[in-house]
Design a protein that fits this description.
Elements: H1 9-13, H2 18-29, E1 40-46, H3 54-73, E2 78-84, H4 100-103, H5 124-138, E3 144-147, H6 148-154, H7 158-166, H8 168-175, H9 181-186, E4 190-192, E5 206-209, E6 214-218, E7 224-228, E8 234-236, H10 238-249, E9 256-257, H11 261-273, E10 283-284, E11 287-288, H12 305-311, H13 314-322, E12 329-330, H14 336-350, H15 355-360, H16 362-366, H17 380-390, H18 395-405, H19 415-432, H20 443-457, H21 466-479, H22 485-497, H23 505-512, H24 514-526
Parallel strand pairs: 1-2, 2-3, 9-10, 11-12
Antiparallel strand pairs: 4-8, 5-6, 6-7
Helix pairs in contact: 2-3, 7-10, 8-11, 10-11, 13-14, 17-19, 17-23, 20-21, 20-24, 21-23
Protein backbone atom coordinates (compact mmCIF):
# COMPACT_ATOMS: atom_id res chain seq x y z
CA UNK A 1 0.00 0.00 0.00
CA UNK A 2 1.43 3.38 -1.02
CA UNK A 3 1.15 6.05 1.64
CA UNK A 4 0.02 9.50 0.53
CA UNK A 5 2.46 12.35 0.90
CA UNK A 6 1.57 14.88 3.57
CA UNK A 7 2.74 18.34 4.48
CA UNK A 8 4.77 20.70 2.37
CA UNK A 9 7.79 18.97 0.82
CA UNK A 10 9.65 22.17 0.04
CA UNK A 11 9.17 23.49 3.56
CA UNK A 12 10.33 20.21 5.05
CA UNK A 13 13.47 20.04 2.93
CA UNK A 14 14.31 23.68 3.60
CA UNK A 15 13.95 23.26 7.36
CA UNK A 16 17.56 22.04 7.76
CA UNK A 17 16.40 19.66 10.48
CA UNK A 18 18.84 16.75 10.31
CA UNK A 19 16.16 14.00 9.92
CA UNK A 20 14.92 15.70 6.75
CA UNK A 21 18.48 16.03 5.45
CA UNK A 22 18.98 12.31 6.02
CA UNK A 23 15.62 11.49 4.41
CA UNK A 24 16.56 13.52 1.36
CA UNK A 25 19.44 11.08 0.71
CA UNK A 26 16.85 8.34 0.22
CA UNK A 27 14.70 10.49 -2.03
CA UNK A 28 17.72 11.00 -4.30
CA UNK A 29 18.65 7.31 -4.06
CA UNK A 30 15.28 6.33 -5.51
CA UNK A 31 14.46 9.32 -7.68
CA UNK A 32 13.86 6.94 -10.61
CA UNK A 33 11.29 4.93 -8.66
CA UNK A 34 10.87 2.72 -5.59
CA UNK A 35 13.13 -0.32 -5.00
CA UNK A 36 12.09 -3.69 -6.37
CA UNK A 37 10.99 -4.87 -2.93
CA UNK A 38 8.44 -2.05 -2.89
CA UNK A 39 9.51 -0.22 0.27
CA UNK A 40 12.44 1.58 1.91
CA UNK A 41 14.09 -0.57 4.58
CA UNK A 42 15.58 1.11 7.65
CA UNK A 43 17.70 -1.04 9.94
CA UNK A 44 19.13 -0.67 13.43
CA UNK A 45 21.50 -3.18 14.98
CA UNK A 46 21.94 -4.45 18.50
CA UNK A 47 24.54 -6.74 20.01
CA UNK A 48 22.90 -8.57 22.96
CA UNK A 49 26.20 -9.41 24.64
CA UNK A 50 25.09 -7.15 27.49
CA UNK A 51 21.98 -5.43 28.76
CA UNK A 52 20.61 -2.92 26.23
CA UNK A 53 21.81 0.58 27.04
CA UNK A 54 20.52 3.99 26.18
CA UNK A 55 22.75 4.27 23.11
CA UNK A 56 20.82 1.42 21.51
CA UNK A 57 17.57 3.22 22.23
CA UNK A 58 19.08 6.37 20.72
CA UNK A 59 19.84 4.62 17.45
CA UNK A 60 16.29 3.31 17.11
CA UNK A 61 14.84 6.68 18.13
CA UNK A 62 16.93 8.63 15.64
CA UNK A 63 16.34 6.16 12.82
CA UNK A 64 12.60 6.39 13.48
CA UNK A 65 12.85 10.18 13.16
CA UNK A 66 14.54 9.81 9.77
CA UNK A 67 11.89 7.32 8.65
CA UNK A 68 9.07 9.66 9.70
CA UNK A 69 10.77 12.55 7.90
CA UNK A 70 11.00 10.41 4.77
CA UNK A 71 7.30 9.59 5.01
CA UNK A 72 6.61 13.33 5.00
CA UNK A 73 8.42 13.93 1.71
CA UNK A 74 7.90 10.66 -0.21
CA UNK A 75 5.05 8.29 -0.99
CA UNK A 76 7.26 5.16 -1.01
CA UNK A 77 6.27 2.82 1.87
CA UNK A 78 8.77 2.25 4.67
CA UNK A 79 9.76 -0.48 7.10
CA UNK A 80 12.04 -0.46 10.15
CA UNK A 81 13.72 -3.56 11.53
CA UNK A 82 15.67 -3.87 14.75
CA UNK A 83 18.25 -6.61 14.18
CA UNK A 84 19.81 -8.49 17.09
CA UNK A 85 23.15 -10.23 16.49
CA UNK A 86 22.19 -12.90 19.02
CA UNK A 87 24.11 -15.68 17.25
CA UNK A 88 27.37 -13.93 18.06
CA UNK A 89 29.80 -15.78 20.31
CA UNK A 90 29.75 -14.89 24.03
CA UNK A 91 33.13 -13.19 24.51
CA UNK A 92 33.19 -11.96 28.10
CA UNK A 93 30.99 -11.90 31.17
CA UNK A 94 29.35 -8.49 31.76
CA UNK A 95 30.03 -6.96 35.15
CA UNK A 96 26.43 -5.83 35.69
CA UNK A 97 24.59 -9.18 35.69
CA UNK A 98 24.12 -11.92 38.34
CA UNK A 99 25.50 -15.49 38.28
CA UNK A 100 28.76 -14.47 36.66
CA UNK A 101 30.57 -17.68 37.59
CA UNK A 102 27.92 -19.69 35.77
CA UNK A 103 28.22 -17.53 32.67
CA UNK A 104 31.98 -17.98 32.53
CA UNK A 105 31.44 -21.61 31.51
CA UNK A 106 29.74 -20.55 28.27
CA UNK A 107 32.39 -18.32 26.73
CA UNK A 108 32.43 -18.91 22.97
CA UNK A 109 28.86 -20.22 22.71
CA UNK A 110 26.22 -18.33 20.69
CA UNK A 111 24.36 -15.87 22.88
CA UNK A 112 21.15 -17.80 22.28
CA UNK A 113 22.86 -20.88 23.79
CA UNK A 114 24.09 -19.09 26.94
CA UNK A 115 21.78 -19.57 29.96
CA UNK A 116 19.90 -16.52 31.19
CA UNK A 117 21.60 -15.35 34.42
CA UNK A 118 18.32 -13.74 35.50
CA UNK A 119 16.42 -17.01 35.06
CA UNK A 120 13.52 -15.47 33.15
CA UNK A 121 14.18 -16.52 29.54
CA UNK A 122 15.53 -19.43 27.52
CA UNK A 123 18.91 -17.76 27.03
CA UNK A 124 20.94 -14.65 27.77
CA UNK A 125 20.37 -13.51 24.20
CA UNK A 126 16.61 -14.00 24.55
CA UNK A 127 16.60 -12.07 27.83
CA UNK A 128 18.41 -9.09 26.35
CA UNK A 129 16.24 -9.19 23.23
CA UNK A 130 13.12 -9.09 25.40
CA UNK A 131 14.50 -6.19 27.43
CA UNK A 132 15.22 -4.22 24.27
CA UNK A 133 11.78 -4.87 22.77
CA UNK A 134 10.09 -3.84 26.02
CA UNK A 135 11.90 -0.50 25.89
CA UNK A 136 11.06 0.06 22.24
CA UNK A 137 7.42 -0.91 22.73
CA UNK A 138 7.16 1.50 25.63
CA UNK A 139 8.00 4.33 23.26
CA UNK A 140 5.62 3.14 20.56
CA UNK A 141 8.21 2.59 17.83
CA UNK A 142 6.88 1.06 14.62
CA UNK A 143 9.40 -1.74 13.97
CA UNK A 144 9.87 -5.46 13.33
CA UNK A 145 12.33 -7.45 15.42
CA UNK A 146 14.78 -9.76 13.63
CA UNK A 147 16.90 -12.37 15.40
CA UNK A 148 20.23 -13.31 13.83
CA UNK A 149 19.83 -16.90 15.05
CA UNK A 150 16.41 -17.22 13.40
CA UNK A 151 17.59 -15.60 10.17
CA UNK A 152 20.60 -17.91 9.83
CA UNK A 153 18.76 -21.09 10.80
CA UNK A 154 15.68 -20.37 8.67
CA UNK A 155 17.76 -20.02 5.51
CA UNK A 156 16.95 -16.33 5.02
CA UNK A 157 20.68 -15.62 4.60
CA UNK A 158 21.61 -18.71 2.59
CA UNK A 159 21.65 -17.07 -0.86
CA UNK A 160 23.99 -14.33 0.28
CA UNK A 161 26.22 -16.80 2.16
CA UNK A 162 26.64 -18.68 -1.10
CA UNK A 163 27.62 -15.44 -2.85
CA UNK A 164 30.28 -14.90 -0.19
CA UNK A 165 31.67 -18.36 -0.97
CA UNK A 166 31.73 -17.60 -4.67
CA UNK A 167 33.43 -14.22 -4.19
CA UNK A 168 35.59 -15.38 -1.31
CA UNK A 169 38.95 -14.24 -2.71
CA UNK A 170 37.76 -10.72 -3.51
CA UNK A 171 36.36 -10.33 -0.01
CA UNK A 172 39.48 -11.73 1.65
CA UNK A 173 41.67 -9.34 -0.32
CA UNK A 174 39.67 -6.41 1.06
CA UNK A 175 39.75 -7.54 4.69
CA UNK A 176 43.25 -8.95 5.16
CA UNK A 177 45.16 -5.66 4.64
CA UNK A 178 43.25 -4.22 7.61
CA UNK A 179 44.43 -6.98 9.98
CA UNK A 180 47.64 -7.64 11.87
CA UNK A 181 49.99 -10.37 10.66
CA UNK A 182 48.98 -12.89 13.31
CA UNK A 183 45.26 -12.36 12.76
CA UNK A 184 45.64 -12.82 9.00
CA UNK A 185 46.76 -16.40 9.56
CA UNK A 186 43.48 -17.42 11.18
CA UNK A 187 40.99 -15.06 9.57
CA UNK A 188 37.94 -16.28 7.69
CA UNK A 189 34.73 -14.45 6.76
CA UNK A 190 32.88 -17.48 8.17
CA UNK A 191 32.74 -18.52 11.82
CA UNK A 192 31.69 -22.17 11.86
CA UNK A 193 29.71 -23.61 14.76
CA UNK A 194 31.51 -26.64 16.12
CA UNK A 195 29.10 -29.62 16.01
CA UNK A 196 30.88 -31.17 19.00
CA UNK A 197 31.00 -28.22 21.42
CA UNK A 198 28.51 -25.75 19.96
CA UNK A 199 31.11 -22.98 20.10
CA UNK A 200 31.43 -20.24 17.49
CA UNK A 201 34.97 -20.89 16.21
CA UNK A 202 37.45 -18.35 14.88
CA UNK A 203 39.49 -20.72 12.74
CA UNK A 204 40.72 -20.80 9.14
CA UNK A 205 38.07 -22.09 6.74
CA UNK A 206 38.70 -23.79 3.40
CA UNK A 207 36.17 -23.41 0.59
CA UNK A 208 35.66 -26.91 -0.79
CA UNK A 209 32.88 -26.11 -3.27
CA UNK A 210 31.85 -22.47 -3.74
CA UNK A 211 28.76 -23.38 -5.76
CA UNK A 212 27.25 -25.58 -3.04
CA UNK A 213 28.69 -23.68 -0.11
CA UNK A 214 30.70 -26.67 1.14
CA UNK A 215 33.50 -25.68 3.52
CA UNK A 216 35.86 -27.45 5.89
CA UNK A 217 37.69 -26.46 9.06
CA UNK A 218 39.60 -27.96 11.98
CA UNK A 219 37.96 -27.79 15.40
CA UNK A 220 39.91 -27.28 18.64
CA UNK A 221 40.56 -31.03 18.87
CA UNK A 222 42.29 -31.00 15.48
CA UNK A 223 39.46 -32.83 13.73
CA UNK A 224 38.68 -31.64 10.18
CA UNK A 225 34.98 -31.17 9.67
CA UNK A 226 33.04 -30.57 6.47
CA UNK A 227 29.79 -28.60 6.49
CA UNK A 228 27.86 -26.10 4.39
CA UNK A 229 27.44 -22.42 5.07
CA UNK A 230 23.66 -22.79 4.89
CA UNK A 231 21.07 -23.44 7.57
CA UNK A 232 22.84 -21.89 10.54
CA UNK A 233 26.02 -23.97 10.43
CA UNK A 234 28.10 -20.79 10.32
CA UNK A 235 27.77 -17.14 11.07
CA UNK A 236 29.85 -14.37 9.54
CA UNK A 237 32.58 -12.27 11.08
CA UNK A 238 30.88 -9.08 12.13
CA UNK A 239 32.05 -6.73 9.35
CA UNK A 240 31.13 -9.38 6.79
CA UNK A 241 27.94 -10.10 8.72
CA UNK A 242 26.94 -6.45 8.42
CA UNK A 243 27.46 -6.43 4.64
CA UNK A 244 25.78 -9.83 4.32
CA UNK A 245 22.73 -8.53 6.17
CA UNK A 246 22.57 -5.44 3.96
CA UNK A 247 22.59 -7.72 0.92
CA UNK A 248 20.20 -10.39 2.15
CA UNK A 249 17.63 -7.91 3.45
CA UNK A 250 18.35 -5.13 0.92
CA UNK A 251 18.83 -2.47 3.60
CA UNK A 252 18.51 1.14 2.43
CA UNK A 253 19.41 3.08 5.57
CA UNK A 254 21.40 2.33 8.71
CA UNK A 255 23.22 4.79 10.94
CA UNK A 256 26.19 3.91 13.13
CA UNK A 257 28.44 5.37 15.80
CA UNK A 258 31.49 7.32 14.73
CA UNK A 259 33.71 4.65 16.29
CA UNK A 260 32.50 2.30 13.53
CA UNK A 261 33.45 4.54 10.60
CA UNK A 262 36.18 2.19 9.36
CA UNK A 263 33.85 -0.80 9.72
CA UNK A 264 31.21 1.01 7.68
CA UNK A 265 33.76 1.57 4.89
CA UNK A 266 34.83 -2.08 4.83
CA UNK A 267 31.29 -3.42 4.99
CA UNK A 268 30.28 -1.04 2.21
CA UNK A 269 33.07 -2.36 0.00
CA UNK A 270 31.96 -5.95 0.68
CA UNK A 271 28.37 -5.00 -0.12
CA UNK A 272 29.51 -3.75 -3.52
CA UNK A 273 31.44 -6.98 -4.10
CA UNK A 274 28.21 -8.85 -3.42
CA UNK A 275 26.56 -6.82 -6.19
CA UNK A 276 24.61 -4.13 -4.37
CA UNK A 277 24.73 -0.59 -3.06
CA UNK A 278 25.54 0.14 0.60
CA UNK A 279 22.79 1.81 2.60
CA UNK A 280 22.65 5.54 3.21
CA UNK A 281 24.01 6.36 6.64
CA UNK A 282 24.56 8.88 9.39
CA UNK A 283 27.71 8.72 11.50
CA UNK A 284 26.73 9.82 15.00
CA UNK A 285 28.95 10.63 17.96
CA UNK A 286 28.99 8.48 21.07
CA UNK A 287 27.39 9.08 24.45
CA UNK A 288 29.79 9.56 27.36
CA UNK A 289 29.39 8.82 31.05
CA UNK A 290 29.98 11.24 33.94
CA UNK A 291 33.76 10.83 33.52
CA UNK A 292 33.75 11.38 29.76
CA UNK A 293 34.16 7.67 28.96
CA UNK A 294 32.17 5.89 26.25
CA UNK A 295 29.16 4.09 27.70
CA UNK A 296 29.32 0.30 27.48
CA UNK A 297 26.78 -2.53 27.68
CA UNK A 298 29.20 -4.75 29.60
CA UNK A 299 30.28 -2.07 32.09
CA UNK A 300 26.84 -0.61 32.65
CA UNK A 301 28.32 2.88 33.07
CA UNK A 302 26.43 6.02 32.13
CA UNK A 303 22.69 6.02 32.63
CA UNK A 304 20.18 3.38 31.65
CA UNK A 305 16.84 3.87 29.96
CA UNK A 306 15.04 2.77 33.12
CA UNK A 307 17.01 5.27 35.20
CA UNK A 308 16.21 8.20 32.92
CA UNK A 309 12.53 7.29 32.91
CA UNK A 310 12.53 7.13 36.72
CA UNK A 311 13.37 10.84 36.85
CA UNK A 312 11.87 12.35 33.71
CA UNK A 313 9.38 11.91 30.90
CA UNK A 314 10.00 9.74 27.82
CA UNK A 315 9.70 12.86 25.65
CA UNK A 316 12.66 14.48 27.39
CA UNK A 317 14.78 11.44 26.57
CA UNK A 318 13.68 11.57 22.93
CA UNK A 319 14.63 15.26 22.80
CA UNK A 320 18.11 14.45 24.10
CA UNK A 321 18.45 11.90 21.31
CA UNK A 322 17.29 14.40 18.69
CA UNK A 323 19.70 17.15 19.62
CA UNK A 324 23.11 17.30 17.90
CA UNK A 325 23.59 13.63 16.91
CA UNK A 326 27.02 14.40 15.47
CA UNK A 327 28.25 15.82 18.78
CA UNK A 328 29.57 13.70 21.66
CA UNK A 329 27.44 14.32 24.76
CA UNK A 330 27.60 13.41 28.41
CA UNK A 331 24.73 11.16 29.31
CA UNK A 332 24.36 11.36 33.05
CA UNK A 333 21.75 12.32 35.63
CA UNK A 334 22.66 15.99 35.71
CA UNK A 335 21.51 16.53 32.10
CA UNK A 336 17.95 15.42 32.86
CA UNK A 337 16.39 18.63 34.27
CA UNK A 338 17.57 20.74 31.34
CA UNK A 339 16.23 18.20 28.84
CA UNK A 340 12.83 18.25 30.54
CA UNK A 341 12.57 22.04 30.44
CA UNK A 342 13.81 22.28 26.87
CA UNK A 343 11.17 19.79 25.74
CA UNK A 344 8.33 21.80 27.28
CA UNK A 345 9.82 25.02 25.93
CA UNK A 346 9.75 23.63 22.38
CA UNK A 347 6.26 22.26 22.99
CA UNK A 348 4.96 25.66 24.15
CA UNK A 349 6.31 27.34 21.01
CA UNK A 350 4.71 24.82 18.66
CA UNK A 351 1.16 26.22 18.81
CA UNK A 352 2.08 29.63 17.38
CA UNK A 353 4.55 28.39 14.77
CA UNK A 354 3.85 28.12 11.06
CA UNK A 355 4.49 24.84 9.26
CA UNK A 356 8.05 25.79 8.26
CA UNK A 357 8.98 26.47 11.88
CA UNK A 358 7.24 23.31 13.06
CA UNK A 359 9.40 21.19 10.75
CA UNK A 360 12.43 22.65 12.56
CA UNK A 361 10.94 22.13 16.00
CA UNK A 362 12.24 18.97 17.73
CA UNK A 363 8.78 18.06 19.03
CA UNK A 364 7.56 17.50 15.45
CA UNK A 365 10.21 14.79 15.10
CA UNK A 366 9.69 13.41 18.61
CA UNK A 367 5.98 12.91 18.00
CA UNK A 368 6.16 12.15 14.29
CA UNK A 369 4.16 15.26 13.43
CA UNK A 370 1.29 14.34 15.78
CA UNK A 371 1.94 17.01 18.41
CA UNK A 372 -0.44 17.94 21.23
CA UNK A 373 0.74 21.34 22.52
CA UNK A 374 0.91 22.04 26.25
CA UNK A 375 2.01 24.85 28.55
CA UNK A 376 3.22 24.60 32.14
CA UNK A 377 2.86 27.35 34.74
CA UNK A 378 6.38 26.64 36.08
CA UNK A 379 9.53 24.96 34.81
CA UNK A 380 10.92 21.63 36.00
CA UNK A 381 14.05 23.38 37.30
CA UNK A 382 11.89 25.75 39.34
CA UNK A 383 9.87 22.79 40.60
CA UNK A 384 13.09 21.11 41.78
CA UNK A 385 14.11 24.24 43.66
CA UNK A 386 10.66 24.47 45.21
CA UNK A 387 11.08 20.92 46.52
CA UNK A 388 14.53 21.85 47.80
CA UNK A 389 13.43 24.99 49.64
CA UNK A 390 10.16 23.66 51.01
CA UNK A 391 11.43 20.19 51.96
CA UNK A 392 8.16 18.91 50.49
CA UNK A 393 7.62 15.16 50.53
CA UNK A 394 4.35 14.99 48.61
CA UNK A 395 2.58 16.52 45.65
CA UNK A 396 -0.19 18.04 47.75
CA UNK A 397 2.32 20.41 49.35
CA UNK A 398 3.77 21.34 45.96
CA UNK A 399 0.32 21.99 44.49
CA UNK A 400 -0.35 24.35 47.38
CA UNK A 401 2.56 26.55 46.32
CA UNK A 402 1.70 26.30 42.63
CA UNK A 403 -1.97 27.18 43.21
CA UNK A 404 -0.95 30.34 45.09
CA UNK A 405 1.37 31.30 42.24
CA UNK A 406 -1.00 30.36 39.40
CA UNK A 407 -4.62 30.51 40.61
CA UNK A 408 -6.73 27.69 39.20
CA UNK A 409 -3.76 25.40 38.61
CA UNK A 410 -4.61 21.85 39.67
CA UNK A 411 -3.59 18.32 38.81
CA UNK A 412 -6.64 18.16 36.53
CA UNK A 413 -5.85 21.35 34.63
CA UNK A 414 -2.12 20.59 34.35
CA UNK A 415 -1.74 16.78 34.34
CA UNK A 416 1.74 17.03 32.79
CA UNK A 417 2.92 19.14 35.73
CA UNK A 418 1.38 16.65 38.14
CA UNK A 419 3.53 13.95 36.54
CA UNK A 420 6.61 16.15 36.73
CA UNK A 421 6.07 16.52 40.46
CA UNK A 422 6.58 12.77 40.91
CA UNK A 423 9.83 13.03 38.95
CA UNK A 424 10.96 16.12 40.89
CA UNK A 425 10.39 14.53 44.30
CA UNK A 426 12.38 11.44 43.33
CA UNK A 427 15.15 13.40 41.62
CA UNK A 428 15.52 15.64 44.68
CA UNK A 429 15.68 12.69 47.09
CA UNK A 430 18.28 10.80 45.04
CA UNK A 431 20.51 13.55 43.66
CA UNK A 432 19.92 16.95 45.21
CA UNK A 433 19.29 16.22 48.88
CA UNK A 434 22.42 14.04 49.43
CA UNK A 435 24.61 16.80 47.98
CA UNK A 436 23.10 19.87 49.69
CA UNK A 437 25.78 21.89 51.48
CA UNK A 438 24.77 25.14 53.13
CA UNK A 439 27.38 27.73 53.98
CA UNK A 440 27.35 30.84 56.10
CA UNK A 441 26.94 34.21 54.42
CA UNK A 442 29.97 36.50 54.20
CA UNK A 443 29.84 40.03 55.61
CA UNK A 444 29.05 41.47 52.18
CA UNK A 445 26.41 38.82 51.51
CA UNK A 446 24.81 39.45 54.92
CA UNK A 447 24.37 43.10 53.96
CA UNK A 448 22.69 42.02 50.71
CA UNK A 449 20.39 39.50 52.42
CA UNK A 450 19.31 42.07 55.02
CA UNK A 451 18.62 44.54 52.22
CA UNK A 452 16.55 41.92 50.42
CA UNK A 453 14.62 41.25 53.62
CA UNK A 454 13.78 44.94 53.92
CA UNK A 455 12.72 45.11 50.29
CA UNK A 456 10.53 42.00 50.60
CA UNK A 457 8.93 43.49 53.72
CA UNK A 458 7.80 46.42 51.55
CA UNK A 459 6.08 44.08 49.06
CA UNK A 460 2.61 42.64 49.35
CA UNK A 461 2.82 39.13 50.83
CA UNK A 462 0.80 37.87 47.84
CA UNK A 463 3.11 39.41 45.23
CA UNK A 464 3.65 36.92 42.39
CA UNK A 465 5.07 39.18 39.68
CA UNK A 466 8.51 37.65 39.10
CA UNK A 467 9.85 40.77 37.36
CA UNK A 468 8.88 43.01 40.28
CA UNK A 469 10.54 40.68 42.77
CA UNK A 470 13.62 40.26 40.57
CA UNK A 471 14.11 44.03 40.56
CA UNK A 472 14.34 43.92 44.35
CA UNK A 473 16.83 41.03 44.21
CA UNK A 474 19.04 43.03 41.81
CA UNK A 475 18.77 46.10 44.01
CA UNK A 476 19.76 44.18 47.14
CA UNK A 477 22.92 43.01 45.40
CA UNK A 478 23.74 46.55 44.34
CA UNK A 479 23.14 47.78 47.89
CA UNK A 480 25.98 45.48 49.01
CA UNK A 481 28.26 46.76 46.21
CA UNK A 482 28.63 43.45 44.37
CA UNK A 483 30.81 44.20 41.36
CA UNK A 484 29.47 41.12 39.62
CA UNK A 485 25.86 40.29 40.44
CA UNK A 486 26.48 36.68 39.47
CA UNK A 487 28.40 36.37 42.76
CA UNK A 488 25.29 37.62 44.57
CA UNK A 489 23.03 35.11 42.84
CA UNK A 490 25.50 32.31 43.59
CA UNK A 491 25.36 33.34 47.25
CA UNK A 492 21.56 33.04 47.15
CA UNK A 493 21.88 29.46 45.89
CA UNK A 494 24.61 28.37 48.29
CA UNK A 495 23.37 30.11 51.45
CA UNK A 496 19.60 29.71 50.98
CA UNK A 497 19.31 26.46 49.01
CA UNK A 498 22.56 24.65 49.78
CA UNK A 499 23.45 24.11 46.13
CA UNK A 500 25.85 25.62 43.60
CA UNK A 501 23.22 26.40 40.96
CA UNK A 502 19.66 27.56 41.07
CA UNK A 503 16.75 29.38 39.45
CA UNK A 504 16.12 33.01 38.64
CA UNK A 505 15.39 34.28 42.11
CA UNK A 506 12.46 36.44 41.05
CA UNK A 507 10.55 33.47 39.68
CA UNK A 508 11.53 31.29 42.62
CA UNK A 509 10.38 33.77 45.26
CA UNK A 510 7.12 34.36 43.35
CA UNK A 511 6.44 30.63 43.43
CA UNK A 512 7.73 29.91 46.94
CA UNK A 513 6.04 32.95 48.41
CA UNK A 514 7.27 36.25 49.83
CA UNK A 515 6.60 35.35 53.50
CA UNK A 516 8.22 31.92 53.10
CA UNK A 517 11.29 33.48 51.46
CA UNK A 518 11.69 35.98 54.31
CA UNK A 519 11.69 33.06 56.74
CA UNK A 520 14.18 31.21 54.55
CA UNK A 521 16.56 34.20 54.63
CA UNK A 522 16.25 34.71 58.39
CA UNK A 523 16.93 31.01 59.07
CA UNK A 524 19.96 31.10 56.76
CA UNK A 525 21.42 34.16 58.48
CA UNK A 526 20.93 32.59 61.90
CA UNK A 527 22.52 29.37 60.67
Amino acid sequence: MVMPMTGNIDLALSSNAWPFKEAEKLVKRYKAGPPEKGYILFETGYGPSGLPHIGTFGEVSRTSMVMRAFQEISDIPTKLICFSDDMDGFRKVPTNVPNQDMLADYIGKPLTQVPDPFGTHDSFGAHNNARLQAFLNQFGFDYEFYSSTECYKSGRFDATLLKICQRYDKIINVILPTLGEERRQTYSPFLPLCPDTGEVLQVPVRIENPDTGLISFENKAGKRIETTVAGGNVKCQWKIDWAMRWDALDVDYEMAGKDLDESVKLSSTVRRILGGKPPEALSYEMFLDANGQKISKSKGNGISIEEWLAYASPESLSLYMFQSPRKAKRLYFDVIPKAVDEYYSFLAKYTDEDQAARYKNPVWHIHGGDVVPANLPISFALLLNLVSASNAHDKETLWGFVANYAPGATAETFPALDGLMDYALKYFDDFVKPNKKYRAATEQETIAFNSLLTRLEALDDNETDASVIMTEVYSAGKDANFKNLRDWFKACYEVLLGQSQGPRMGGFIALYGVPETKTLIKDALER
